Task: inverse folding
């Protein structure tokens, strides 16, 4: 694989040279936070959020780069987003305290969940859908996790197991375990039927921003200042990687680990050995979200915000980028 030189990205002038390595999907007017491919790889979904997002979700045609739909409804930043296993439904979480379901095919809103506190400092940065689509789970900035029945909109359970922001929620592939990651530096596992806490993993390596579950459902990769992989049953560390991370994704075959970092760098690693296979300068800012296509040959990145004098600012680079990962 090739390393994409920084000279290709003349971002401050608002231009970028397109070549075989990447394409730009333009439309968002603020930092992009999360990206996901649909299971067939034909569609990409992105959202815009902190620190000054455009409050929208965009649905893109991967082949053409054309924006199919612009989804509006949230009244503030959208920092949490996931797709159903069949790729037909989006679940989003906003700083307005709501979580919403959307139809991918039509771009139409489906349902809204309202139950988290809504103050200036709260929001819903973490969301997850159960593999069968019957339960939606949302996590907020005061440490509360709520599970909802997606048909009735009623709460299945409500717990507060974390002492700080819940930043990431993900189900194991069999749907029997819910995993949460928090700024309190811990990962927790839960029984998604009852909300009963099962295990606490004290990662203790700085604020946890993102989680990715291995395809076999046995391990979780934790994105924080020290990137690492943990066994969910025993709670022991399996692998420590020589990097920090802001966002992570694992290929469908469980062989590749895609890492997004502060400062705009994205790198591709061998999941088991940690060997760095490629490095890209993806943004003039931070790489808030990464995704791998189902075949593992394409990556997508979300980002664009940056920090000045220690404070987050909007930044200037709001494109969603799709990258060709050449062997």
Result:
């Amino acid at each position: 694989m090739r390393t994409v030189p920084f000279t290709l990205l003349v971002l401050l002038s608002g231009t970028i040279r397109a070549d075989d390595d990447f394409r730009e999907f333009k439309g968002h007017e603020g930092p992009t936070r999360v990206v996901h491919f649909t299971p067939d790889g034909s569609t990409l979904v992105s959202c815009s959020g902190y620190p000054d997002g455009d409050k929208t979700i965009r649905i893109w045609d991967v082949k053409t780069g054309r924006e199919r739909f612009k989804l509006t409804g949230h009244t503030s930043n959208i920092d949490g987003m996931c797709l159903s296993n069949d790729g037909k439904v989006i679940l989003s979480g906003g700083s307005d305290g709501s979580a919403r379901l959307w139809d991918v095919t039509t771009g139409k809103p489906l349902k809204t969940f309202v139950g988290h506190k809504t103050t200036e400092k709260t929001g819903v940065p973490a969301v997850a859908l159960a593999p069968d689509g019957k339960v939606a789970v949302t996590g907020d900035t005061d440490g509360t996790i709520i599970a909802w029945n997606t048909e009735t909109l009623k709460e299945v359970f409500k717990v507060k197991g974390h002492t700080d922001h819940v930043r990431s929620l993900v189900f194991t592939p069999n749907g029997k375990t819910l995993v949460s990651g928090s700024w309190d530096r811990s990962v927790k596992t839960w029984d998604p039927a009852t909300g009963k806490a099962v295990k606490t993993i004290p990662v203790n390596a700085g604020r946890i921003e993102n989680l990715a579950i291995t395809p076999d459902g046995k391990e979780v990769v934790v994105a924080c200042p020290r990137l690492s992989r943990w066994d969910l049953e025993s709670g022991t560390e399996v692998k420590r990687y020589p990097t920090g991370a802001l966002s992570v994704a694992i290929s469908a075959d469980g062989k590749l680990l895609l890492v997004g970092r502060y400062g705009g760098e994205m790198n591709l690693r061998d999941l088991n050995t940690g060997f760095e296979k490629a490095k890209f300068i993806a943004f003039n800012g931070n790489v808030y979200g990464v995704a791998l296509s189902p075949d593992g040959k394409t990556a997508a990145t979300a980002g664009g915000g940056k920090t000045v004098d220690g404070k987050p600012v909007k930044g200037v680079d709001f494109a969603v980028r799709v990258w060709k990962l050449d062997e």
Remarks:
- The longest strand covers residues 32-37.
